Each structure stands twice: as structure tokens, then as C-alpha cells.
Amino acid sequence: MKIFAERLKEARLGQGLTQKQLAERVGIARQAIYRQEEGKQIPAVTTLVALAQELNRSMDWFCGLE
After folding, report:
1. Does the keyword field hold DNA-binding (predicted)?
2. Could you give all domains of the chain from N- to C-terminal order, each with its CATH number?
3. Whose CA is closest to 16, among 53, 54, 48?
């Protein structure tokens, strides 16, 4: 889960987005983005798909498989 947390933050910052902006774009609470970046929460598959699409990354990349 640590690799997902690190990569989520890296991808978000790379796009110049705040946690709030990203949360609004994928339809979740800002607190969820915070918890995911802290490694305290695993996103639902539907959220992972939305994050990957919004941040132009593959789900494999987020999971450390690329």
C-alpha cells in the first residue's frame, strides 16, 4: 500500500492538483485522498480507475507493477 500512496501523491503533484481538486474530479471526499496518500486507506476499484484516468497513469503503475 505504501507504493500506491507514494505514487498517488507523485501523480497528483505532477499534474499540479491539490487534494481537493483531485477529489472533486474523481467524485470522492478530499479526506479520502488524504488517507490514501498517507497509506491509511485503499481506494475502491472504481476510484482507482477514476484516479488512473484523471492522472493519466495506468492502474498497474499505481500498484507498482510498472
Report:
1. yes
2. 2-58 (1.10.260.40)
3. 54
